[in-house]
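Input for the complex:
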Amino acid sequence: MQSRAPKKPRLPETRVYTASAPGKVILFGEHAVVFGRPAIAVPVTQVRASVTVASAAEGNGLTIVATDVDRILRLCEAPQDDPLAAVARLTLERLGQNEPNAVLSIQSTVPIASGMGSGAAVSAAISRGLAQFLGATLSPDHISSIVFEIERFHHGTPSGIDNTVIAFEHPVFFVPGRQIEVLVPAKSFTLLIADTGLRSTTRAVVEQVRAAWQMDRSRYERLFDRIGTIATTARSAIELGAIQQLGPLMDENHRLLQDLNVSSTDLDRLVDAARGAGAAGAKMSGAGKGGNMIALAHVPDLQRVTRALSDAGATRVLATVVEARQK
Ligand code: PMV
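Predicted:
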């Protein structure tokens, strides 16, 4: 008699999906953009938030694992105002789907609270990953609007620039309340991004600017106007490939941010060091009072400027190329 091979038990197939979103830096216009002026931001693809979504056994619901910040939470038990749970809930609501049985794991190399959009990148990656797991696609517009809702948790009154640049993953010229405009650089240029190592809370700095604006509206409106004009001029320079114009515009934007009282001695020291080592221009980037600064450097000067930034105390210096594209 022939012996039959024993039947292997059938395990349910594990489905695994991955998704990610980049960090960002603001090139021109931070703070003034909260008051309706234009701003320019570019994605920074070297730092990313990534998620893996793997199917789990029936009845388990959605578990979110954020190892970087030491958190594990079950969606059904998470408080309403938890930002990680909120982005999952909002995504499910937009997709008209029930909570899946899955484990969503998050990792991020975007530095936290330093002006590189870490919160927005994590939210965008969660939303994308969850949609993929459920067999749906969310357009950059949809991702952007979900992330914007979550940014409100973090920042109170976000302008919308972070969610936009991170969801579209292109340089953007952003004016609050207007259709997004993707910027098409005619020439590539390299930015160095240097971290002061000091964390700062966007919400607190934005509130400080608002309080100062309430005390002296006409002075602050004038400063915002000048910053807005710089962003508009920079936009043309980028689109025409007139990169030599960008350095002086960055320097002027930094001076105006100092006037808004959002820079700091550490940021100023890095800005001075970059300029002293031959950077074409430099400024703080993001909310300020810590976080990162950016410097525009031509290729032959990159190493010297990087060294000068490290010598001046930068805890990390990253180079990113804003690539030229065809119209
Ligand atoms: O520090 P960040 O990357 O969150 O940038 C904040 C930019 C601000 O203009 C200060 C605030 C905003 O919502 O646009």
